[in-house]
Amino acid sequence: MNKSLNLKTYCIYGLGVSGKSVVNFLKKKNIKSFSTWDDVKNRRNLYSKIKKNEFKKKIFNADFIIMSPGINLKRTIFYKELKYNENKIITDLDLFYLFNPNVKSIILTGTNGKSTACKMLEHILQKKFKVKLGGNIGIPVLDISLKRKPVVIIEASSFQLAYSKFLKPDIAAILNITNDHLDWHGTFKNYESSKFRVFNNQRKNNLAFLKEERHIKIFKKNSFKSKLKKISSLKFLDIKNKIKNEYFKSKINDNNLHFVYEISKTFNIKKKNFIKYIDSFKGLEHRHEIFYKKKNYQFINDSKATSFASTKKALESNKNIYWILGGLPKERDNFNLSNVKKNIAKAYIIGKNVNFFKKQLKGQVNYLIFKDLKNALNQIFKDVKNNKFSFSVLLSPSSASYDQYKNFAERGKEFKRLVKNYAKKNFI
Asked: In terms of residue numbers, what domain contains 215?
């Protein structure tokens, strides 16, 4: 660690989970020269009752401004001051690398599948290595214990990457990029550029994993210094066909599985061992989670699908679907159902933004509109009561949950509870 870092002055903007972890981290390092702020008054007073004008001065005097992920610069109280000092803005991920320059690390990012891919990679590597997982999944990266020199797997969001300046992972991968968070980034180009920042500080002995041809072209155009590892699909089917785990029978996780396999090879995990290890992997909750299944039907909790791109795989992988969707739609999202509408028996729109979803589905599939999830399910139970064919009831909202729920997990848990309660009473 560079000892001069202890002498720097820090401003912490945002006191959510990651902001609090930054405070605790600096305290553990005996760094006392830091100030905190949150635009929400209740959180603002957690550590000090600093005045607005006083913190404004701190912004100009600070060496680093640590911005919590998700905070949009344009919507902050100190937009002008922060914009002027934008070169000082970093994230908790930057602090992690500044204070631990020799850590062995892997960063995975992408629009869909980050959490699942990180958990899969952790599951594989921990069979032979000491592994820690954090970042946008699990615990904040600064809470990770580095005793016994673990391999650190980090899930990085576009919010974190947009502000980051000092990341230097040994291995970095972009799983995919589709329209998302455009209300925050402004344009798709900005969103895409934030993802590619993961490669900025890599050196020639570091590895960059990419699959899509467009991403490979961008990588080459930017002349990143790391070694590019192109993921080819030629031999992947042979590996997948040998996996017995039911979780991987559909195409939902093909992309995640492929990236994890290629990355695990750099740790000398042999193919036969990879297949053996992955057979015991259990999927994450709320991500195409088949939680109730009988002979001819299944209920799937895919509440984490907050855009159509993340829902599309579920629609491709199932037949005769009774699809529940709706919530807070993503800006400029577009539902192209041409290749999947044959799989949809009926759609059930819920939430407070029905007009958006009506426009997306009109002329493509039959749909009904309901106030909430409970009412939609009550209708579905009636619709499938005498159905003798195989079918799937799928909650894959293609939207954020904030119009009716605190988060996607709360939405998914309610779906599971309602289904299980009905099943107990009616034995559907």
From this structure: 99-278
User: For residue 38, what is the domain's CATH number?
Assistant: 3.40.50.720
Residues 48, 389: Cα–Cα separation, whole Å: 63
How does pLDDT run across 248-303, given as a tens digit for each residue?
988 899 999 999 999 999 999 999 999 999 999 999 999 999 999 988 899 999 99
Residues facing residue 324 across a β-bridge: 348, 395
Pairing of strands 297-301, 289-293: antiparallel
Residue 428 is predicted with a pLDDT of: 59
Burial classification of residue 339, based on how many CB atoms lie within 10 Å of its CB (0-12 exposed, 13-18 middle, 19 or more buried): exposed
pLDDT of residue 2: 64
Tell me if 36 sits within 8 A of 15, measured CB to CB: yes
Asked if residue 129 and residue 270 are part of one domain, the reply reads yes
Q: Examine the domain organization and report whether 115 and 219 are in the same domain.
A: yes
Same domain membership, residue 197 and residue 138? yes
Q: Tell me which residue of 411, 413, 388, 386 sits closest to 400, measured CA to CA.
A: 411
pLDDT at 198 (0 to 100): 98
Helix (H, G, I), strand (E, B) or coil at 93: helix
**Domain total in the chain:** 3
> Which tokens is 230 given?
């192109």
Q: How much is the pLDDT for 160?
A: 94
> 294 lies in a domain?
yes
In a domain, 283, yes or no: no
Helix (H, G, I), strand (E, B) or coil at 139: strand
Burial 80-111 (b: 16+ CB within 10 A, else e): ebbeebeebbbbbbbbbbbbbeebbbbbbbbb
Q: Count the Cβ atoms, other than its own, within 10 Å of residue 77.
A: 14
* Residue carrying structure tokens 């980034």: 185
For the chain, list residues with pLDDT below 70. Answer: 1-3, 427-428
State the first-to-last Cα distance of the chain, in angstroms, to the nearest integer: 60
3-class DSSP assignment, residue 180: coil
Whether the pTM exceeds 0.85: the reply is yes
Q: Give pLDDT, residue 131.
A: 98
Q: Are residues 134 and 265 in the same domain?
A: yes
Single-letter amino acid, residue 34: F
Give me the phi and psi of 176, to 5 degrees please.
-175, 165
Spell out a b/e string for 229-241, using b for 16 or more CB atoms within 10 Å of the CB, else e. Answer: bebeeeebeeebe
